[in-house]
Automatic annotation (TrEMBL):
Protein's GO biological process: methylation; RNA processing
PANTHER family: 23S RRNA (GUANOSINE-2'-O-)-METHYLTRANSFERASE RLMB
InterPro entries, per database record: Alpha/beta_knot_MTases, rRNA_MeTrfase_TrmH, SpoU_MeTrfase, tRNA_m1G_MTases_N
Official protein name in the record: RNA methyltransferase, TrmH family
Keyword Ion transport assigned: no
Known EC number: 2.1.1.-
Residue ranges occupied by any tRNA/rRNA methyltransferase SpoU type domain in the UniProt entry: 25-181
An example Gene Ontology molecular-function term: RNA binding
Assigned keywords, A-Z: Methyltransferase, Transferase
Native source species: Prevotella multiformis DSM 16608
């Protein structure tokens, strides 16, 4: 086997990315303090063509050299907005009819393997999958120490939990983002 060169990977330009159909998913960062984590989330969001990232509270925003160090340009391709309070972001998402999940360990959480997002609708006229589908989703990822704020969990439509089998009870926020974004992409785009 030979590793592919970058030119062989047929990557989208930033302009093509902005015009391309997106995964119907918004990632919300609730007081994420590490700029490297923020950048890593941008990079994962770019990889799976996430619709947008909402940066909330103390979460830093681009342009920022430390974010760029791990985003590697993902901060230029993925749409983002800033909210002073995560609750405001959740209210805006709900107004748009978005189903909001907090990724958190709570009573009655949905285990990630049991996630059943609504699949994209099929256009009767064209016989093709609708790229946006009939439901949009949001994932809220919390602070590296405190997780998602309880007030935000209370506003969520549900909570997702990644099962873990070791001695630790949490994953790094950027690792969590990659796992959960991939699961949405796998279930909604790779059918």
């Amino acid at each position: 086997m030979r590793k592919l060169r970058t030119i062989e990977m047929n990557r989208l330009s930033i302009e093509e990315f902005k015009e391309a159909d997106k995964l119907p998913l918004t990632v919300v960062l609730d007081d994420v303090r590490s700029l490297y984590n923020v950048g890593s989330v941008f990079r994962s969001a770019d990889a799976f063509r996430v619709e947008a990232i909402y940066l909330c509270g103390i979460t830093a925003t681009p342009p920022n050299a430390e974010i760029h160090k791990t985003a590697l340009g993902g901060e230029d391709s993925v749409a983002w907005r800033y909210f002073a309070h995560t609750e405001e972001a959740v209210e805006e998402l709900h107004r748009r009819g978005v189903f909001v999940y907090s990724v958190e360990q709570v009573e009655g959480s949905t285990k990630l393997q049991d996630l059943t997002p609504r699949l994209p609708a099929v256009s009767r006229e064209e016989g093709e999958n609708s790229p946006a589908g009939d439901r949009h989703y949001a994932l809220i990822l919390g602070n590296e120490v405190k997780g998602v704020k309880q007030t935000v969990v209370d506003m969520s439509d549900g909570c997702l939990e990644i099962p873990q089998f070791g001695t630790k009870h949490s994953l790094n926020v950027s690792v969590t983002a990659g796992i959960v974004i991939w699961e949405f992409a796998r279930r909604l785009l790779l059918r």
